Amino acid sequence: MTLSADVTCRELGLLRHGQRVLDDITCAFRPGELTAVVGPNGAGKSSLLQVLAGVLDASGGTVSINEQPSQSIPAAERARLCAFLPQSELPSWSVSGADLVALGLLPWGRVPDRDERVRTALERVDGKDFAQRPVTQLSGGELRRVQLARLLVGQAPLLIADEPTAALDIRHQLQLLQTLRGIADSGKTVVLALHDLSLAARYCDRVLLLEGGRLRAQGTPRDVFTPAMIGEVYGVSCEFRWRDGEAEFVVFDLI
Ligand SMILES: Nc1ncnc2c1ncn2[C@@H]1O[C@H](COP(=O)(O)OP(=O)(O)OP(=O)(O)O)[C@@H](O)[C@H]1O
């Protein structure tokens, strides 16, 4: 079983319905790193994550995982390497929370400690109470936490989540980012699309800032999150206050 995932993208491009939505993206995602992909609506964050996860094929360039072109990795192996949570996903069947989480173990076939793994994954998102509930009867944030448990349950070396905090209350946002930080610290590669720049600044090692399908900046949050850069890309005036490793992001107004 592969325990780590070293991901490199070279000159990635993507066309969707004839429109170029990713252009010349070169970047890397290393084991032990928590990376935030940020940028305005339509910048290409979800598209990039879908290409990384193998859900979409790039129109040009390459993605390699552990130096192997990702398209040449057999689907079953790729499913064990990478767990992906799309931006939105509504359940079509009224399965229980526990059964939905267990879907995250499918790539490993019969797992002897399945029930224990599912229970632990649900506990990590504070979702024990949802194990026996039909997922069609959960609130938006409760369902998201069950889906996050499904992402975590397989302990894949590469975790990719598209706006994982969007439906969560503040407490569960912090709890999730702390959990993902710990998972990255244990040597896994974690990539998130985030709109919350405070969370990205506080918890992530690296930031990729996309604008119009292009990589506008990449580096540490301190490198990328300058008032000038955020002003240019988002059209807002703002300030970042850095204190003892904590970041406070304050938005003042539209520019
Ligand atoms: N299924 C699709 N077919 C065609 N074009 C699409 C499709 N999905 C997204 N796009 C277009 O691709 C571009 C990038 O979209 P994408 O969803 O990657 O942006 P995003 O940065 O994730 O945005 P958001 O913050 O709104 O989620 C946009 O111009 C969008 O209109």
TrEMBL record:
Keyword Cell division: no
Keyword terms of this UniProt record: ATP-binding, Nucleotide-binding, Translocase, Transport
Domain ABC transporter: 7-237
Entry annotated with the keyword Zinc-finger: no
PROSITE patterns found in the cross-reference section: ABC_TRANSPORTER_1, ABC_TRANSPORTER_2
GO molecular function: ATP binding
One Pfam family of this chain: ABC_tran
Residues annotated as transmembrane: none
Function: Part of the ABC transporter complex HmuTUV involved in hemin import. Responsible for energy coupling to the transport system.
PANTHER family according to UniProt: HEMIN IMPORT ATP-BINDING PROTEIN HMUV
Record-given protein name: ABC transporter ATP-binding protein
Organism, scientific name: Microbulbifer flavimaris
